[in-house]
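Bench notes, afternoon.
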Amino acid sequence: MSAWGGTSAGDRSVGSDASKGSEVAESADFSALCTQLNRLAEAPLTAIPRNIDECFRGDAEKLTIPCTDVSVTALGLGAQYRVTSSTELPEGEYLLQCRGPTASSAPGPTSYVKFPGPAAVEPDGDRLVVSFWETISVTVGGSPGDCSGLSRITVEPTPEGLATGLTHLAAAHHTTAPVRSHPSFREHPPLFEVGEETSVPAAVEAETPDTGIEFLLPPALDKLFVAAPLAYYLGASVRVEDRERPLLRAEEPSIHHEFDGLPGFQHQCAQLLRRAFFLDCQVRRVAPDRACRDALGDLPVDPNTLRSLGPAGRLEQCLAISERDLDSLLPDWHLSTYAKPTPDRIGCLPYLLDRLSLVYLPQATELDQHELLDQTLTAAYPTRGETRTSSVLKPELEAGQLHAWLAPGTPIDAFKPIPQAYRNRAKYRTRQNDQLQVGVVLNDDQMCEEHETVSNIYEERAADLPIDVTIQSGLDRETLADVFEAKNDFVHYIGHCDDVGLRCPDGNLDIANIEESNTQTFFLNACGSYEQGLSLVESGSIAGGVTFKKVLDKQAAKVGTAFARLLVHGFSIERALQLARRRIMMGKDYAVVGDGTYALLPSPKQPAVVRVRDRGSAYTVSCEMLTAQSNGDRYDLPFDGREILNGDKFDTRVSAAELERALSSMSLPVIYEGDFHWSEEFVETL
């Protein structure tokens, strides 16, 4: 660790009033931080360049902040990076962003500390210790970390109304510099409410950046839906006019970039966003002690020059680079949404853009039932009920590792969100739980093996996290309805499902008949539970795992146990089920309804999946990082410590001994010969 100046980090006065105020706070709330400041006084909200609702100024020599996710920004340079080890900061002005521990993946309360350097920042378990060379004046700000306080733009359900709304979503950006590519520099965009007249709050209008970029589009909702992600990221002013082809333009520098009409427009729009985003990620400032892979290769780009340009200047440079050369360097995009452009889906766009999803128009063919291997399910195997099989669509999937089908029909290989799923997010982000409430329900004694295994998984995880596990069996309709209506964070149902609902000892429970679901997420591991899962989302849940049709007991148990383990390790609902269903031949029988990007717990620090292939005496290891919540973040590879972007992959060759040594020190998913394993299990087979 480097040091600046002549004072060591250990030379601190322990007798000052400031040090007396620095006792460890017992909670992560903002008031606990304020109690550590002397001469506390209210400060204007503008003193912290973030979306906050409280702000104070005071004196301190040392601060102890309960938090699990910390980043520091050098305000004068625009450099931002995560704090994962002891760091000393030289002279300059800094902003710490600290998210406190939370029982769910929803962003917890966020505290900000603005201070001048030099200073020492040291993570210590679930807290952060900030030490200054002397007693100084610091500014602290607090944000609730949920959607409840977001501004709302009223949007008339017309192309003109939506164009105005899209223009102002960029108010969520903290900066127009390249560092906007990092998720810490993008807040959740303002929400849309469809109304009779378009209205933008004055505060949102004031925060909307003037980038000098205009996006001119034909007056049609389908063009606007497709253009939304690119317009949002570039901070473009969106207007509709009578024209055939969309146009990006700027006066200084001069840009006149015309797109094709649909369907080509959606692909061109997506690729330009990926290119601009990638270049921003490569030239933004990062911590000086972090060795980033030089991904620009031989491209005719000077990072320092590109970094110094404004949004329009960087767009001009991006358009000047050969598409073929640049596209070969792009990481996989994390998420694509196939959205039918209708007025009732306009309100979904801010949520999609919060995840930086690409948007395509939906195209699909009806799936031949034989493709679901119907013929393998016969009376010779025990199953989990009998339901009519709904017709299933096979979407035409584009760029993206995760796919969402925001359109009519039942998709395969994509999760099925509905507008209500996104609106339900705010309901749970304002819920205050000291512990994560997990319920496991067994409604058929013959399935006790899965019941025992998943119960053990949740209870073992409860030793590390604040999880309260309730295990029940043989529930009647009224009691099972009470489970879903109670304030549970996750319910794992193991049993049977028929066309009339989830089977209980006294009949079937049709979820459509419950008053309201207060269960955030769920897994209905029963035959043909798709419609019941959709009803849960319509009744108040965010997302859950379901099945299309009959599932074999043993295969369902394999999926259920793998899903449980992935879920409690911070994987999103869709990513967890995507990996878990690899354990069985008929994995396509499983799907996610609701917002599949939602995670029950915070994302793992290394959201890695390792793919291993035999190569004689050595192994080829492919490591990919993917989380839907943090596109633009960088992660350390578990093998050699180098950094890669979210969505990127890295291949290397290792010996059996090297592979065993690396995988023995961590717990992460491994794909070998198409099957899913946990690293510690896979090591035993080497």
